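Revision sheet: structure tokens.
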Amino acid sequence: MQPLPEDWQRALVVAAHPDDIEYGIAAAVARWTDQGKDVRYVLATSGEAGIAGLPPAESGPLREEEERASAAVVGVREVEFLGHPDGRLVEGLDLRRDLAAAIRRHRPELVVTGFFGDSWAPGMLNSADHRALGRSLLDAVADADNEWIHPELAHLERWQSRWVAVGAPSGHTHAVDVTDQVDRAVASLATHRRYLEILDPATPVEEQARQVIEWTTPALDGFAADRAVGFELYTFGG
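Predicted:
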């Protein structure tokens, strides 16, 4: 297994909901910002439908605030929300257009996103929003360098990213050594306090976060690191 390329300066991490990035990928983000790289976040939704018993009008602003605080823990200062409805992301041209616009605005060499396959494991379906976001994003990376697909984006200069890295539970082609970033990744996830308290009220938030990060940053076969985040890497632009 190869190390994920790090000969770049700007990355854009794209996710469907607040907290998606913190389930492992934020550990890699912490490594990259430690190297002085410019990493930015784009969230398709505000996660407003994600907290049982809390109406979307209250949940959305809360989850945006938690995400900005969580990003700051790993050195990310720019977080953008696209305003698509949580739980109702639709794979297609509208989402592709908004993601392509974000790519043109931020101009990343590397685009990063989470797993968007149909299931995490046998009997464990992935979120409909994750599936729609990931599939639309791969198309949007190509769209961002095409002047004809979204003519309404003509005011934004075309941009070709070099790679897309997709976090994956298995089938990794590349990995990032995050041995030194585990504690910051735990702190970043723990910032989603209200969400985690409702998700598992019996377990302290910091303990939940530690368990999750230890699960999502294991040692990987064929990669020399005590803790790692695995990715499937796609190359664009020749």
